[in-house]
Amino acid sequence: MTLTENLSIISLVSQASVLVQLVMTLLATLSLVSWYWIFRKSFQIRSARNKTNGFERDFWSGGDLNGLFQSAAAARHQTGGMERIFESGYREFTKLRAKSHDHAATIDGARRAMRATYQREMDDLEAHLAFLASVGSVSPYIGLLGTVWGIMNAFRGLSNVSSATLAQVAPGIAEALVATAIGLFAAIPAVVAYNRFAHDIDRVGIRFESFMEEFSNILQRQLR
């Protein structure tokens, strides 16, 4: 078998030591799972942004708040985060206004209801971001473990020969470097996706918070 055949990716993986193979398998699994969540979070954030845009158009078009509330309540599982924030705030506002004449307490209750829903929406959007951050930070070190172990095996094998040649050293070193390459392949997309998603979620969160303040002002004017 020639040196080139020995250095093919398939042969390097198949001939690697057990520990290095375990490292490669772990990194490949992390990469697959991270790509799954990258696609899932991408669709989720895009959907949240589109639904927010749609609800803002409906809300600021001057429609009746009761009509918007009934529509949101009827299709709760299909609505976006901002619509659910509006629904919870308006429901609490209506309930407290019927029970109490304390305007400050009514507005404060509506704000608390919106804040609780806002927190649930943000928790849902941020779910699994920590996993992507962990993959991005840990994968290179896991790959480095496989690299160090592979290099140690390569040099340990040289202790049994009188003179080292490239054909004897290259497979062990290449095997070790494959682990590093797989670690980087797992880490780089996870880091890029995490940074992008964190930025997009922050932007959606700012829009939610701005809406809560503006809607609270609208409710306050209705009590005058």
TrEMBL record:
<keyword id="KW-0997">Cell inner membrane</keyword>
<dbReference type="InterPro" id="IPR002898">
    <property type="entry name" value="MotA_ExbB_proton_chnl"/>
</dbReference>
<comment type="subunit">
    <text>The Tol-Pal system is composed of five core proteins: the inner membrane proteins TolA, TolQ and TolR, the periplasmic protein TolB and the outer membrane protein Pal. They form a network linking the inner and outer membranes and the peptidoglycan layer.</text>
</comment>
<feature type="transmembrane region" description="Helical">
    <location>
        <begin position="172"/>
        <end position="194"/>
    </location>
</feature>
<comment type="function">
    <text>Part of the Tol-Pal system, which plays a role in outer membrane invagination during cell division and is important for maintaining outer membrane integrity.</text>
</comment>
<feature type="transmembrane region" description="Helical">
    <location>
        <begin position="12"/>
        <end position="39"/>
    </location>
</feature>
<dbReference type="InterPro" id="IPR050790">
    <property type="entry name" value="ExbB/TolQ_transport"/>
</dbReference>
<keyword id="KW-0131">Cell cycle</keyword>
<dbReference type="GO" id="GO:0005886">
    <property type="term" value="C:plasma membrane"/>
</dbReference>
<dbReference type="GO" id="GO:0051301">
    <property type="term" value="P:cell division"/>
</dbReference>
<feature type="domain" description="MotA/TolQ/ExbB proton channel">
    <location>
        <begin position="82"/>
        <end position="208"/>
    </location>
</feature>
<comment type="similarity">
    <text>Belongs to the ExbB/TolQ family.</text>
</comment>
<dbReference type="InterPro" id="IPR014163">
    <property type="entry name" value="Tol-Pal_TolQ"/>
</dbReference>
<feature type="transmembrane region" description="Helical">
    <location>
        <begin position="129"/>
        <end position="152"/>
    </location>
</feature>
<keyword id="KW-0132">Cell division</keyword>
<dbReference type="GO" id="GO:0017038">
    <property type="term" value="P:protein import"/>
</dbReference>
<keyword id="KW-0472">Membrane</keyword>
<dbReference type="GO" id="GO:0043213">
    <property type="term" value="P:bacteriocin transport"/>
</dbReference>
<keyword id="KW-0812">Transmembrane</keyword>
<keyword id="KW-1003">Cell membrane</keyword>
<protein>
    <recommendedName>
        <fullName>Tol-Pal system protein TolQ</fullName>
    </recommendedName>
</protein>
<dbReference type="Pfam" id="PF01618">
    <property type="entry name" value="MotA_ExbB"/>
</dbReference>
<keyword id="KW-1133">Transmembrane helix</keyword>
